[in-house]
TrEMBL record:
This is Inner membrane protein yebS. NCBIfam families: pqiA_fam. The keyword Nucleotidyltransferase does not apply. InterPro entries: PqiA-like (IPR007498), PqiA-like_proteobact (IPR005219), PqiA-PqiB_transport (IPR051800). Its main location: membrane. It comes from the Bacteria. It is found in: Cell inner membrane.
Length: 424
């Protein structure tokens, strides 16, 4: 059930300032099946859907119990010249690291091993903080930071792509531990949905009361904990900080744009060798066959696996390139005050945030292929030099998207509306 949100007064309400468009609105007390959207940009301000922290901790504990089976035990197996070869998440990362590709392996390790485990541990630490009466400011901040980097769902799709890719080399079979991996991915996704960080901030810091009346001046808002307040905290250097999470406020616009441009330009540079150099090399009877990103897609088309070719092309080529063009477009709009549809700009902004992580699909496939096919002299598989550049491009563009402040677009829109009113 969706409750439309209007800027009106309610008997039970609190005031919130949208972190995406700077609109100040009144948010009513929500029921369990309701959520409140900003009437200006349609961004979700808060949600009544949540599980209590005890239940979330139990789900996190279940994830940690399943992790050794999901990460260390074989998920796929092939019969390669009479020899059974198994593939697991950890084995693929380890082989890549020990066979000359430690930086690429580290990128995969972060998203497929370290971040999922850290996410579950942090949820359990939150529950312990609740039981011990500790204020877990850093834990709540860390949870918000690492959520975009937990990519079990992407790895699950990578498993499907790998199945199609190894069929041409050997007979493929699925292992029972794949069930543990699937359940881990599903539980992690469920925990994402039901862990309400905004509500947890309010639970752990009740002394930082929510605004209940519309102030005369627009209130401040923290982009990290989404707290709306009127009086910021002044640190020893007289800098304004959020009174709840102590995050530095009012970072200069030029600094934000510099961060966005720096990571975006670095990502663009990395994308050139990522597309031009070989992504993988397969040796059959000593004869090498190198595949770039595009030639790998063409190989799937020649095999008749059109859907897999579409998935790989979308995740490995279309999404990284389109994400760069979208960010360039949004930055140009900010710098040159271009008059464009704000709804269209915000839709592009949300697309960039949603699809960016799926570009890691190709690296996960490479890790699985390393553990499955890298055997003996007859068939051998090696990661190409493009793999690291591709992973670095994905990371840099994700950071660039997270650094971009959509409120800059709304400031241009507001100025244009004011000018239109005055000219009219």
């Amino acid at each position: 059930m969706t409750t439309p949100l209007k800027t009106t007064h309610y008997a039970k309400q609190h005031i919130a300032r949208c972190t995406h468009c700077d609109a100040t609105v009144s948010v009513p007390t929500l029921e369990a099946n309701q959520y409140a959207e900003c009437p200006r940009c349609d961004e979700m301000l808060c949600s009544g859907s949540r599980w209590n922290l005890h239940r979330c901790a139990m789900i996190a504990l279940s994830i940690l119990i399943l992790m050794p089976f999901a990460l260390n035990y074989p998920l796929l197996s092939i019969d390669l010249l009479g020899t059974r070869v198994d593939a697991s998440v950890w084995q693929g990362v380890w082989k890549m690291a020990t066979e000359g590709y430690p930086y690429t392996a580290f990128l995969i390790f972060l998203c497929a091993v370290f971040m999922p485990i850290s996410f579950a541990i942090l949820v359990i630490l939150l529950r312990l903080s609740q039981l011990l009466g500790i204020k877990p400011r850093n834990i709540l901040l860390a949870l918000g930071y690492i959520k975009p980097w937990v990519m079990f769902d992407v790895y699950l799709v990578a498993l499907g792509v790998t199945m199609f890719k190894v069929r041409e080399y050997a007979t493929l079979s699925l292992d029972v531990y794949l069930i543990a991996f699937i359940f881990t991915a599903l539980l992690t996704t469920l925990l994402f949905i039901k862990l309400n960080l905004n509500a947890l901030w309010n639970d752990f810091y009740p002394q930082d009361r929510l605004l209940t009346e519309m102030p005369d001046e627009p209130p401040c808002v923290c982009l990290e904990c989404h707290y709306t307040f009127t009086e910021p905290y002044q640190d020893s250097k007289h800098r304004a900080r959020c009174p709840r999470c102590l995050t530095l406020l009012d970072v200069p616009v030029n600094i934000k744009l510099q961060h966005t441009w720096a990571t975006l330009i670095a990502g663009i540079i990395m994308l050139f060798p990522a597309n031009l150099l070989p992504m993988s090399v397969v040796y059959v009877n000593g004869a090498p066959s190198a595949d770039t990103l595009m030639s790998g897609v063409i190989t799937f088309v020649e095999m008749g696996s059109y859907f897999v070719a579409f998935v790989v092309f979308t995740a490995s080529i279309f999404i990284p390139i389109s994400k760069i063009f979208i960010l360039l477009y949004l930055l140009i709009c900010v710098h040159f005050n271009l008059r464009q549809s704000i709804k269209w700009q915000m839709r592009l902004f949300h697309i960039v945030h949603f699809v960016g992580r799926w570009s890691m699909l190709d690296l996960f496939v490479l890790a699985l292929m390393m553990s499955l096919v890298a055997r003996g002299q007859i068939i051998n598989f090696s990661v190409g030099p493009a793999a690291f550049y591709f992973g670095a491009a994905v990371f840099l563009t994700m950071i660039s998207a997270s650094q971009f402040d959509s409120r800059l677009l709304w400031k241009i829109y507001d100025r244009q509306q004011q000018n239109a009113v005055h000219s009219g």
